[in-house]
Amino acid sequence: MSLNCGIVGLPNVGKSTIFRAITSAPAEAANYPFCTIEPNVGRVEVPDSRLNKITEFIKPQKVIPSVVEFVDIAGLVKGASKGEGLGNQFLGHIRQVGAICHVVRCFEDENVVHVEGKIDPIADIETINLELALADLETVTKRVGNLSKMLKSHDKKVKEKALIAQPILENLKNILEEGKPARSLNLDAEEVDAIKDLHLITLKKVLYVCNVDEDSVVDGNEHVEKVKKYADAEDARTVIICGKIESEIADLDSREEKLEFLESIGLEESGLDKMIKEGYELLELSTYFTAGEKEVRAWTYETGYKAPQAAGVIHTDFERGFIKAEVYHCNDLFELQSEQKVKEAGKLRIEGKEYVVKDGDVMHFRFNV
Predict the structure, then answer these.
(1) What pLDDT, on the 0 to 100 scale, is given for residue 323?
(2) pLDDT value at residue 220
(3) Dihedral sign from CA coordinates of 10, 271, 106, 280
(4) What pLDDT is stored for residue 135 in this prediction?
(5) pTM for this one?
(6) How far is residue 210's CA from residue 271's CA, in Å, rounded to a whole number?
(7) What's the CA gap between 19 and 10, in Å, rounded?
(8) How many Å from the N-terminal Cα to the C-terminal Cα in the chain?
(9) pLDDT at residue 355 in the model
(10) Which pLDDT does position 165 carry in this prediction?
């Protein structure tokens, strides 16, 4: 399991520049729309100081961090839901990601053209959101049209599924016709499960990424404030990032150089680190560790997982044959400085199938298949 985010936005808002900087993967960045057609995919290590600290007390042959996957999706435009700007192709890519990083242009630069000819972040957001809502409306409308057939089905399961989905689909159709996202209905887990096969774009959680100039990276600007206010109204998150600065950070060789550079401009962490942290919270993800002589590794899991589910992140056999787990928290290791002392202090526990894994747990699974 990894954090999977699609980077979307209007053309020329800085998506590809940010993608290229944070992933150090090749992505064409040019001053004209639609320079990105096929989505670029980059995998980035998740920064977690706990992982490296564990290796101070448990010396492994290798260290494996969690990863986050960013997908750079071509710029959407007004009419994308009807195929404008190769819109249908781009919308299909968005359906495959776990969350959306919506890059919004919050900088003035007469040398970088804006597809609408003016800098208006809220209008930009609403253009994208409307196109995504219209695309979902088409999907929902098709399903509603098939409901009568499903309700008459002789297959009991198909009929039951249709009965459950019917009121949800009707509510979705109404809200999408208003240009509002499906997530604004605040569907519960059972309702989401009933329509999950539709892969609705506007049901995905969104992180608004405010792309600013160098002077606004610390405190933001009036454009950022507008985006924050908009995001707060729909219970979404925002993060400030400067594509140009991220490009400069990406060119530095060592972590020490990067930290010195960030300190020199008044930042404690890079825009990438902030995006990853916000993404984890957005998708309610956490991290546990496995540690031994062969490797120390970070594993991403959904917050609230019980021990067998967390074991399944490693391999489905681990979940199917789960017996118990040996568990202690990484903070106990940092305090006592060895696994032996953790054991002697009674901090290492044997947990069963009902144990809810905590962020920062160090785990060793016992299983039988």
Answers:
(1) 94
(2) 83
(3) positive
(4) 87
(5) 0.80
(6) 10
(7) 14
(8) 22
(9) 96
(10) 87
Q: Which two tokens stand for residue 137?
A: 């409306």
pLDDT at residue number 68: 84
Q: CA-CA-CA-CA torsion for 11, 15, 17, 22, nearest 10 degrees?
A: -170
Nearest residue to 77 (alpha-carbon basis) of 115, 134, 30, 24: 115
Interatomic CA distance for residues 314 and 66, integer angstroms: 12
How far apart are the C-alpha atoms of 6 and 93, rounded to whole Å?
8
- Give the containing element (helix H, strand E) for 189: helix 189-194
Q: What tokens were used for 205? A: 């959680």
Q: Tokens in use for 354?
A: 């009902």
Strand pairing report for 206-211 and 237-241 = parallel
Return the structure tokens found at 135: 């695309």
- The 10s digit of each residue's pLDDT in 20-66 is 777 764 433 333 333 444 567 778 888 888 999 999 999 999 999 98
Cα separation of 19 and 41, whole Å?
Answer: 9
Looking at residue 1, its pLDDT comes to 55
Angle at 269 between CA 259 and CA 363, to 5 degrees: 100
At 117 the pLDDT is 64
Query: In the prediction, which pLDDT does 265 show?
Result: 85
CA-to-CA distance for 23 and 39, rounded, in angstroms? 14
The stretches in the chain having pLDDT less than 50 are 25-37, 80-81, 83-88
pLDDT for the residue numbered 189: 87
Look at the block and give the residue holding tokens 């989401």. 192
Residues in the chain: 369
3-state secondary structure the chain: CCEEEEEECCCCCCHHHHHHHHHCCCCCCCCCCCCCCCCEEEEEECCCHHHHHHCCCCCCCEEECCEEEEEECCCCCCCHHHCHHHHHHHHHHHCCCCEEEEEEECCCCCCCCCCCCCCCHHHHHHHHHHHHHHHHHHHHHHHHHHHHHHHCCCCHHHHHHHHHHHHHHHHHHHHHHCCCCHHHHCCCHHHHHHCHHHCCHHHCCEEEEEECCHHHCCCCCHHHHHHHHHHHHCCCEEEEECHHHHHHHHCCCCHHHHHHHHHHCCCCCCHHHHHHHHHHHHCCEEEEEEECCCEEEEEEEECCCEHHHHHHHHCHHHHHCEEEEEEEEHHHHHHHCCHHHHHHCCCCEEECCCCECCCCEEEEEEECC
Looking at residue 273, its amino acid is: D
